[in-house]
C-alpha cells in the first residue's frame, strides 16, 4: 500500500457502505480470460446508453468467507506479489496492480487489458497474492477485483504509485515525490443535499497496454447507478506532475438536478483559522488548505478552508469557469511538524474545464470533523441546468495533480489566514506574497479593500515586509448581533487589483 496507514482506506468508507447496500455487482462484459474480443470506446458508450434504458438492478457477486469480514489490519497485510504486477517486467513505463476485494472494498470491478484493439479480461489468481498469514482456501475461484493501482517507472527507484481507482468512482493520483492525499470522483449526485447523496460506481475498467517507455496511459470506464449511467475516458500523462484528461458522457435514467462534476475532497482537521484546537502535538493537520478559483470573468479567488462547528455550504456562482481546485499551499515541514503523515507532501488538485460549461456554481462544503481520516472539505462544479430522464450530457476537464498549479495569480497570492478574539471583535490576519512587494515604494501604494456583509470593518492596517516579498493585512470585524458574515478582501494599487480576492465566511 502506498502509505500503509489506516487513513488511506477509512476515507473511502462511505463508498464501501454504499457498495454493501447494493450487494456487490456482477461481472460486466463478463468473458473468459482466455478469450479476447474487439474493443473501442464506442462499445463502452453503447453499453452505457443501453443500460440507461432499463431500471438499475442491484448487482450480485458473492465474496468468499475468507475475505468477507476482514478488518483493516488483515486487509492491509494483503499484497500482490511484485512479479504478478501486469507489465512489470515489460519495461513499458507503467504497471498495473489489480487490487484485492475485502474490508471496505467488497464491490467487484472488472478489469480488462486492451492490446491491438482486443480486450481480454484479467482473471483473479489466488497465487498472485501474499495474504499476510490469512488462511485462504485454494479454491477461491475468479472473484474479480476491487479496483486497480497504476504504477510508473521512476528512474532508479523502481515502480512508484501514480494513481489508484478503488471504491465507487474515487480516484487518487500524485505528482513525483508526493504522498497520496486529495481525492476526486467521476461523478457525484446530491452531495450535501437533504435527500441524501447517491454514489455512482465504476463497474469496469479497460486499460490500454502502453507502448514501451510510454509517458501516457489510457483507461476507459463504465459508470452505473440508480439515476445515471456513463462512459468515461481517462488519459493519464506521467511527469513531474500527473495530468489526467477526463472525458465523460452520461445518460440519465431519472431527472438530474444535483450533479457534481469534477468533485474533489480532502481532509482538514485543524489550522490557523480554527478556534477549537485539539490536544495535539502537531502544529496543524490538513492535506488541503483552501479552494482556488479562476472565474469566467478572469478573477482569481481564494477561499481558505476550516474545520467548522456546523456544516457550511458556500456557492460561488459563475459562467464558464476557467479553473478551480483544492490546493495545499503549505510546503514546509515546520507548518505541520508531523514526521509520519507529512502533510506538506500532499498533492494540490487543479481542475481546468475543457470547453464551455455554461452557467452554474462552484460549491464548497465544509463538514465538521474530529478525525484526520475524514475527507471533510468538498468542492465541485454544479451545472445550473438539469438533465432530464432520457437525455445525455457530455463534459471534459483536465486534472493537474501537482505541487503547484500551472495557472496561478499574476499579482500576489494568500499564504496565511488567521483569526482570533479581540474583546467583542474578531481580528483577522491575512498575508500575501508577490514580487510587487519587493519594491517598498510600490508596496507603499498598496491598500486593502475589505467588505463585510453583514457586520462592519472597524480597523484596517497594512504592513509591508519587502525582504520577504510579503504584505500583511490586519483588520477587525465587528459582527454586532450577527452570527455570520461574508468577508471579501482584495489588495489595490493604482486603482488595479494587486492580489487574488480573499473570501471567508465567519461564523460565531
Structural commentary:
The chain is mainly beta and 508 residues long. It has 2 domains: 7-402, Distorted Sandwich (Beta-galactosidase, Chain A, domain 5); 413-507, Immunoglobulins (Immunoglobulin-like). It contains 6 helices and 34 strands. The strands form 5 sheets. It has a 16-stranded mixed sheet that branches. Strands 3, 7, 8, 9, 10, 11, 16, 21, 24 and 25 form a 10-stranded antiparallel sheet that branches. Strand 32 (484-493) and strand 33 form a beta hairpin. It is globular, with a radius of gyration of 24 Å.
Topology:
Blueprint: H1 7-10, H2 13-22, E1 37-38, H3 41-51, H4 65-68, H5 72-76, E2 79-80, E3 94-99, E4 110-115, E5 118-121, E6 129-130, E7 147-153, E8 159-166, E9 170-173, E10 183-185, E11 188-189, E12 201-208, E13 216-224, E14 228-237, E15 242-252, E16 259-266, E17 268-270, E18 285-286, E19 290-294, E20 300-304, E21 312-319, E22 323-327, E23 348-354, E24 359-366, E25 377-383, E26 392-402, E27 413-422, E28 425-433, H6 440-444, E29 447-453, E30 456-465, E31 470-478, E32 484-493, E33 496-497, E34 501-507
